[in-house]
Specification:
The chain is an alpha/beta fold. It is 35% helix and 24% strand. Helix 10 (416-427) packs antiparallel against helix 11 (453-465) and helix 12 (490-503) packs antiparallel against helix 13 (520-530).
Length: 667
């Protein structure tokens, strides 16, 4: 019997079709929601990253877009919300962003800048409203500035803030105020941890004195930065005097307008027989751009005479024959000099003496004692000149230190008063000495504590006596009278460091930057020597051999240089102007192919940064191990070579071609 086919009613079929369509549409909707959700999160997160807002995290829940994270400030939070709102509908956004709490406001940096010149003093900066107990207030500072310049109005632009000043603020402020008192043309910038002094000194000697005094007075914990300039002196008149006699060739005074002119003058003097070094001041005031050529021509004339002198006072030139010069030779040499001098110069010639008779017995003398007392004896023209000479001497030496015992002689030669006053002015430059004035010459003899005095005495006599006048200067320098002689120069300090380093090596624990115990004595010796050299601008340079990697050697040399710097600082050495720098293996001084060479290359160097030519020497790949006055070197010793420095070594010229260490090699 055949089965009967089941027949579904039309209404049932319609219901089934509707259910099936609903299921399909629901699946499509769910899939679309997943796509929209994933795409929204991806787009928003990408744009946040591009805008630099990496602190935003984007999550989705259905069609909702949730933003979470901590914004650095409220403004950043709003920028993130606005950016997200431009990408998705704002109704879909959910703000879960936090804002970082505001940080505590840092106290202000108190600082004062004090400017001083001939017009007065200016005070600018931020001052604590309430100074520390016993400290200076802004009113105290203004009163001190007013006392320094009572005839000018102080410009006070100090502001105050109600914060507690740092511990070293008052020490730095008092130090800066003392510097202002010392320097009439200066800018003093003061902070609690730093004082910067910019000033102008009248001479190189004053510059050294100022720098030494300030470094000595610098308080602990305060960095001192000095920029003291010493402009070239103005020489009036521009003076040069070169002579040659039985004692040899020498300068009584030497001036030059440029370094080139100075080199030309000294070269001519050396060729004329001058031995040893001499001071030749480079100053301002030259009467001609050809000063150096003219001076060299005059020096060559004296050399040709073999006895005599040449004196330049601005453009006035005097050539004088010495003992034993024949008239014929003098005329020849003088003619050559006249032709060689530039047009701006005039020549006066004093030939050999044919009559040795002295022009009368008249003379005037003055004696300056080491205690500063002056005795005036001899002849003067009349009472008027006697009063004038006494008054002038009292003005130069002090009213209570002059003893006058002169006589009157109206027959004295013309120009006698001028010669006497010029001699007294020259004598005032000495510590002690004598003056002799005669009809045919003026002689100044004595002792000084300044190396510039001989030149100054010559300038005075040359200017006051006039062209063609005869005078003699016999001034001896006594180092015991020089207040600057006891101050070591930077070059002398560096030479002391070199001597210490040459006696003993600085060694380190192998493989580290720890200074070995046996190196303690050399560190102590360096600290003791540098105590007399505050603010010395030294570079402590560390070097290694070529073993190991370049990066490892560079880091090791830097760490060792810094270890030496810290060791000196721990022994109360002023290291404010020092620096530590590691050069690694870049500057060998010996062959890295031998153990002795590698040991020499492992070293610490002290380099005086301001020494002439030091920078050029430092740039060479094979600088000398002992740098002389400008620097000091000591090898670190074989035990200083760490395990990282054990790759095969090459000669310095092969250094740049050395292959890099393999990953499995040390360093």
């Amino acid at each position: 019997m055949p089965k009967r086919l089941l027949r579904l009613s039309p209404s049932l079929l319609a219901a089934l079709a509707f259910v099936l369509a609903s299921v399909v549409m629901l699946g499509i909707s769910f899939a679309a929601a997943l796509v929209i959700e994933s795409r929204s999160a991806e787009v928003v997160q990408s744009r946040m990253t591009e805008a630099g807002m990496t602190w935003v995290t984007v999550e989705t829940d259905g069609l909702q877009v949730r933003l979470s994270g901590t914004a650095p400030n409220e403004s950043a939070r709003f920028r993130a919300l606005n950016l997200a709102g431009s990408l998705v509908d704002s109704g879909r956004l959910r703000d879960r962003l936090d804002v970082a709490p505001a940080s505590t406001v840092a106290p202000p940096r108190f600082s004062v800048e004090m400017l001083r010149n001939d017009d007065g003093i200016q005070l600018i900066g931020l001052f604590p409203e309430q100074p520390a107990p016993g400290g200076l207030s802004d009113a105290d500072l203004a009163a001190a500035a007013n006392a320094l310049a009572p005839d000018t109005e102080i410009v006070n632009m100090l502001q105050k803030a109600a914060y507690t000043p740092p511990e070293t603020w008052d020490d730095a402020l008092r130090f800066g105020l003392n510097a202002l008192k010392m320097l009439k043309r200066s800018k003093i910038s003061i902070a609690a941890d730093r004082v910067e002094v910019t000033a102008i000194a009248d001479s190189a000697a004053e510059k050294r004195r100022i720098e030494a005094d300030l470094r000595k007075a610098k308080p602990q914990g305060v960095v001192l930065v000095l920029d003291v300039s010493a402009p070239r002196p103005v020489l009036t008149p521009f003076t040069l005097r070169f002579l040659k006699d039985e004692t040899g060739a020498r300068f009584d005074a030497c001036s030059a307008d440029t370094d080139r002119a100075r080199a030309v003058i000294l070269a001519a003097a050396s060729a004329a027989g001058l031995s040893g070094g001499t001071a030749c001041t480079v100053g301002m005031g030259t009467p001609s751009p050809r000063w150096g050529d003219a001076a060299a021509a005059g020096i060559r004339a004296v050399a040709a005479l073999n006895a005599g002198s040449v004196t330049f006072s601005d453009a006035d030139v005097t050539l004088m024959a010495g003992e034993g010069v024949s008239p014929a030779d003098f005329d020849r040499v003088a003619g050559d000099l006249r032709a060689a001098l530039p047009d701006a110069f005039s020549l006066d010639m004093i030939g050999p003496k044919t009559d040795a008779a002295v022009q009368g017995p008249a003379e005037f003398t003055a004696k300056l004692s080491p205690e500063g007392r002056v005795e005036l004896r001899g002849r003067l023209v009349d009472e008027t000149q006697q009063a004038a000479v006494t008054a002038y001497a009292q003005a130069r030496f002090g009213a209570t230190k002059i003893y006058t015992a002169t006589t009157l002689d109206p027959t004295l030669p013309d120009g006698w008063p001028t010669r006497v006053l010029a001699g007294i002015a020259a004598l005032a430059e000495l510590h002690d000495g004598t003056l002799l004035v005669r009809a045919d010459r003026v002689e100044v003899k004595g002792v000084t504590g300044s190396q510039d005095t001989r030149g100054r005495v010559t300038q005075i006599l040359s200017a006051e006596l006039g062209q063609g006048a005869t005078f003699k200067v016999d001034v001896r320098y006594d180092e015991a009278l020089d207040p600057l002689a006891a101050l070591p120069t930077p070059e002398e300090c560096a030479a002391t460091v070199h001597t210490i380093m040459a006696r003993q090596k600085i060694t380190f624990t192998p493989g580290s930057a720890e200074i070995a115990a046996e190196a303690g004595p050399v560190i102590e010796a360096l600290a003791k020597a540098l105590a007399d050299c505050p603010g010395l601008p030294l570079e402590i340079a560390g070097h290694t051999d070529a073993q190991g990697s370049e990066t490892g050697n560079q880091a090791l040399s830097q760490a060792r240089a810094e270890a030496v710097l810290i060791a000196l600082q721990g022994r109360r050495v002023d290291v404010s102007a020092m620096s530590a720098k590691g050069y690694g293996e870049a500057r060998p001084i010996a062959d890295n192919g031998t153990e002795a060479g590698r040991e020499a290359n492992r070293r610490i160097e002290f380099v005086l940064k301001s020494a002439p030519g030091e920078a050029e020497a430092a740039d060479g790949a094979a600088a000398a191990p002992a740098a002389g006055p400008g620097g000091a070197t000591a090898a670190e010793g074989a035990d200083a070579a760490p395990a990282e420095d054990q790759s095969p070594s090459l000669a310095p010229q092969e250094k740049t071609m050395r292959p890099k260490a393999r990953p499995d090699q040390p360093g």
